[in-house]
Amino acid sequence: MTSDNAADSKISAEALTLHRSLLTLDSHIDIPWPDRDDAFLDTPRRHVDFPKMKRGHLTAGCFVAYIPQGTVDAEGHKAAQAQTIGMLEAINAHMQGTREGLTARICQTAAEIETAFRDNVLAVVPGVENGYGMGEDISLLARFRDLGARYVTLTHNGHNALADSGQPDRRLGDAETRHGGLSALGREAIAEMNRLGLLVDISHTSRDTMLQAAEVSSVPVVATHACVRALCDHPRNLDDAQLDALKACGGLIQITAVSGFLRPRAELGGRRATVSEYMDHLDYVVRRLGPEYVGISSDFDGGGQLDGWENAAGSPALTAELMRRGYDRSEIAAFWGGNFLRLLEKADREACR
Ligand SMILES: [Zn+2]
């Protein structure tokens, strides 16, 4: 018996039944790079692979090409562009098809994700984490979209050519701000992303970048993996004014399972945050904005992991906790994917214009 099965046995039959009936989507999962580990096999190293998704009844995952921030120059951009394309190509090459009794499909639209759910097939939604991956070449956004990407996170840690990050990288010589939020190129990139149907992900960005992006993007912006600053004062988290701006534009925050964003490090003292502490952030957004502005992400294989949600196989624990907190089926379904799918549909409607 594996540990996640043991965890499962603590979950009520009622919660398991509800969980299994839902379309569940995790909006931010990293992939190992250089490419290694077969996603069709249960590996001890990966927190998300297809067997764990299946066991945890996780329908869909946004798997990202994560590009660490490097120098903002021609050489750095060239390497970042090549890695982004290489990672998206690897997702397409190795994360779909039928093997080991499992079927996975690259899905690009809400309708395709819903069809995969009905077909009992795992849905893989590609994304790009860090606008650094396009360097200064706007035309690459169309290439990312052609390779199935549905969102681009404007920055990671460290400023890039598009925007300021919430966490300047001193090793790269970053000052507190480089552009005062978005650069002219960043604004151009957002317009192109809107045109292509790429969601604008404001996780990791500075406060000014986020507020400006919410303003200029014709499609609501999303934080695919972020937490609430009122509960944990981390520069990466969204404060109340940012949450309000998110609601004003019709956007979405997908609470993420990174301990250091959920509780202050000093308080954690080395332990991992719990599922309950995670849900405190979700509750906060529901109370302030309403249930249609919040969802779920793990950041598994990119730093995310909770006490009680160790890997994708343990996903029913979240549904159980949401039930304990009194949420009904329609709310839990919205958190687990309904809200994110609605945003994808909105992006597609805007892109078609
Ligand atoms: Zn991230």
Query: What gross morphology would you assign?
Result: globular
Proportion of residues in β-strands = 5-15%
Unreliable parts: none
Q: Main β-sheet: number of strands, strand sense, barrel status?
A: 7 strands, mixed
Bound molecules: zinc ion
What integer is the average pLDDT? 96
Helix content: 40-55%
List how many beta strands DSSP finds.
10
Radius of gyration: 19 Å
**CATH C-level name:** Alpha Beta
CATH superfamily: Metal-dependent hydrolases
Strand-pairing-aware structural class: alpha/beta
Distance between the termini: 52 Å
How many helices does DSSP assign? 14
CATH topology: TIM Barrel
Q: Do you know the CATH architecture?
A: Alpha-Beta Barrel
- The ordered H/E elements are HHEHEHEEHEHEHEHEHEHHHEHH
Please give the domain count. 1
Protein name: Membrane dipeptidase
Task: Describe the structure in your own words.
This is Membrane dipeptidase. With 353 residues, this protein is an alpha/beta fold. The chain has a single domain (2-348), classed as Metal-dependent hydrolases (TIM Barrel, Alpha-Beta Barrel), CATH 3.20.20. Helix content is 41%, strand content 13%. The strands form 2 sheets. Strands 1, 2, 3, 4, 5, 6 and 7 form a 7-stranded mixed sheet that branches. It has a 3-stranded parallel sheet with strand order 8-9-10, sandwiched between helices. Helix 2 crosses helix 13 and helix 8 (207-216) runs parallel beside helix 9 (240-249). It is globular, with a radius of gyration of 19 Å. The mean pLDDT is 96. Zinc ion is lined by residues 129, 203-204, 225, 302.
